[in-house]
Amino acid sequence: MARRRQLRNLLNEEQLRARLSAEMEPRVTFSFYRYAQIADPQAFRDDCYAAWESLGVLGRVYIAHEGINGQVSVPSSNFPAYRDALYAVDFMDGMRLNIAIEADAPSFLKLKIKVRPKIVADGLNDATFDVTKRGRHLSAPEVNALLEQEGTIVVDMRNHYESEVGYFEGAIRPDIDNFRDLLPAVEEMLTDHREANIVMYCTGGIRCEKASAYYLHRGFPNVAMVDGGIIDYARQCAALGIESKYLGKNFVFDERRGERITEHIVSHCHQCGTPTDRQIDCANVACHLLFVQCPTCAAEYNDCCSTECRDFHALPTEEKAQQRTERVFNGQKYGKAMRASLLEKGVARLE
Q: Any catalytic annotation for residue 48?
């Protein structure tokens, strides 16, 4: 009888962390995406998991009828074999692999591959929109040259908590926390600049690929995107010895939380206002707010966003379980209003 394929992780977090800590070999962390037509995403997902798990691949991958989007890490000795496995699939042959700036830092604990309606949730329901007809790709020198031209508009197509810690000089950075709402909001912002040169950027290019195609579809003729996103732009700048117009850190969706691109600190502690770009989740898991906190406030508030969360976090487990359903904390998201509120409380020492 044929052995049944294991198609999901069976270890708990403690076991996963122990397994990763025991590894002696450095890992390569990178991202990739490709828009394509996948007839049976679930079957493709299962085949990928079975093949990749044996190579020690860890990470987060989304598969949909419209393509694949992945952020992964792999033991360095297995990187060539994994790259060959990806390129062996027709629609992924030659696909860009965006190697992380801090490529050997711990990033993922397990391999998670999910089937989703879309690889980038966009809220669009337009059968005439073709995502493959995207804007012009710009190299790092081309980006810098265009940014120096008068009238060029630069748009950050990431969530606000990503752009808070790093961005291109002069970029429009909407205070929005999902791509679905970002598309119509940016279109409205650009209504009076339809003929301008518009440069869009995101982490690795996948969101701009779709956004640039969408705005071309909506009648904006001069839309371009940073090829390979912030990750490849930074790599090109370093390789060519040219100035980086991107300042600060590049937010990443893994345990590293961010990669430093330049030494600029462009954000501030939400509690005391000190310049810092240290982003953490509130240690109170009932809150889990993602926010910016300096080391001094981290020590004072035990990695929590407020005295309320700090005190709750310090309670015995049983007491926290009893109170959790009755307590309301900040929640998982913040915007400008939340940041201003935390800073106002922070100046007053959150009492």
A: no
